[in-house]
Amino acid sequence: MAPMRGKQNDSKFFQTTKRGEIQELKEELHASDKAKQKDAVKKVIANMTVGKDVSALFADVVNCIQTDNIELKKLVYLYVMNYAKAQPELAILAINTFRKDASDSNPLIRSLAVRTMGCIRLDQVTEYLLEPLRKCCQDPDPYVRKTSAICIPKVYEINPELVEDQGFIEILKDMLSDPNPMVVANAVAGLAEISETLRKDLLDLENKATIPKLLAALNECNEWGQVFILDALATYKPSGSGDAESITERVTARLSHANPAVVLAAIKVVLMCMESIDNSETLRVLAKKLNPPLVTLLSSEPEVQYVSLRNIRLIVQKRPGILAADVKMFFCKYNDPVYVKLEKVDIMVMLVTEKNFEQVLLELKEYASGVDVDFIRKSVRSMGRVAVKLERACERAMSVLLELIETKVNYVVQEAAVVVKDIFRKYPSRYEQVLSALCDSLEVLDEPEAKASMIWILGEYAERIDNVDEILDSFLGNFHDEPAVVQMQLLTGVVKLFLKRPQHTQDMVSKVLKYATEECNNHDIRDRGYIYWRLLSTNPEATKQVVLGDKPGIKDDSQTLDKGLLDRLISDLAMMSSVYHKPAEEFVIRLTTAAPAGPDQEAGEDEEYDEEERQARRREVQE
């Protein structure tokens, strides 16, 4: 209990706001009592953590580094990492100690020294780091080797040319053969990071010896090491069906891992290997194996559920059969956050079939009577998507929509109007019983999309609605105040009405054409007005063929991704791309290493560089 009590009491270091504290800390840092010295460093770190500038104490804190106490060393190293950029000259003074610690008998201190030197992002430090780093890469202790492996990409970020010239990339590749699985995992992570910067594959997975090494390390390293290795395996293109099957056999054990990142990375590897497998029975068995882990991910906390659902949407589009029988798993729970509910509804629509559409529509109807407006809108819109997707579901969907329209709830009717328009486009001249219910609810329509949809329905079914001219005339009264989408539909709707009832609507069509061509600033509306005017004045029969002709069929592809993009996102499963459903370059800004300077520029820089100071530093390090 004593150590725990000590850690709880560390909060006292954050409560000091005295005047003259820097001077007091300076004195404490030079105290001969090691316990007092350690407390002083803790106070400095506490001040640094809350944002106070304690860089004035740099030399005094670095002075405490000469100690055998690992805890004190860690604190000093933490301080040095934080202030090295602000005090580069002073940081270089501590290099001697880092180099000395890199050869310490204690492996923890060796790895701590190398890790700290790698975290100091200073070009001047890099040249002093290379020799200790090279030694630590061959260190007998695996903890030191794994720390060195992850340090190489950090140094590469500071000085890529130096790392390549000194052969550190080859050292990392050799580490893939290390007997310790964590060293292998960190070597994979390091090579992957450098590959991303270079835009070139350094892992050399085509080498037949590499894959067995990674698969062997997979079973023994920790969960983050497994993620690195699985991500690397996902980039490998198997040489044939047998090769792909042997990889999936070794990887499927990771599907039952407790960490969702490992599970998603394993699913990605299996999906990529399935592309190379010819045997349909093997594919069926693998699809069956992927089902339980995907369902299990839905019982995680909401944030993990959301990431999983975004990935599941990609998987369902790529391999619909994997979750075809599990639509009930995506039914929303009362305590799900709205962002999870919205994703679940989309997946329900993707998985709907002629066998389960009754259940899905019943569930969506239940959601539409809830309290969250966004979720209700999504549910109503999803009913329309089900109806457009499955003809057999349309009758049932229309009866549910009719019930919802009769509730006269503003936002429900708005969405229902948009949905009914889509259904009429897909199945013309059917389900006209809903027309009267929509006409009775006109007063609640105030959103542009809902108004535009209603006007389209009025124009399309003008011959079946008795007072359609009065309704369209009421919309026409506010023509100039309406958004462009409503004006466009109103223009087309009135022209359709005129073509169907020319005797009673002559004045109305003249009025709308005048509004569109003379009083409207929108080019699209004006152009369409002129086209209608010329068609009507020259060839009314041709106008009927153009305006009242057969419409192209529609299908529900609102949630469907382009095949090329889908394949790319599947290869990026469990990464940010799979959550955004966008390739990485659309949302990641890469800071590329500056190009080498030209010969003239290099000559100028050489003259300015103080060579004597550099030599003096080197002599100091050697001493």
Unreliable sequence segments: 1-8, 593-610
Rg result: 35 Å
Q: What is the total tally of β strands?
A: 0
Estimate the helix proportion, in percent: 55-70%
Q: Which structural category fits the helices and strands?
A: mainly alpha
> How would a textbook summarize the main sheet?
none
Mean pLDDT: 82
Per DSSP, the total helix count is 35
CA-based shape:
elongated
Q: Which percent band covers the strand fraction?
A: under 5%
Cα-to-Cα separation, first versus last residue: 45 Å
List keywords for this structure.
623 residues, mainly alpha, 35 helices, 66% helix, 0% strand, elongated, disordered N terminus
How is this structure best described in words?
- With 623 residues, the chain is mainly α.
- It is 66% helix and 0% strand.
- The protein is built from 35 helices and no strands.
- The chain has helices spanning 2-8, 21-29, 34-49, 58-63, 70-83, 88-93, 95-101, 107-119, 123-137, 142-158, 160-165, 168-175, 181-198, 210-218, 223-234, 241-251, 260-274, 280-297, 302-318, 338-351, 357-367, 373-389, 394-405, 410-426, 434-440, 448-460, 468-476, 484-500, 506-518, 523-538, 540-547, 563-571, 576-580, 599-608, 611-622.
- The protein starts with a helix and ends with a helix.
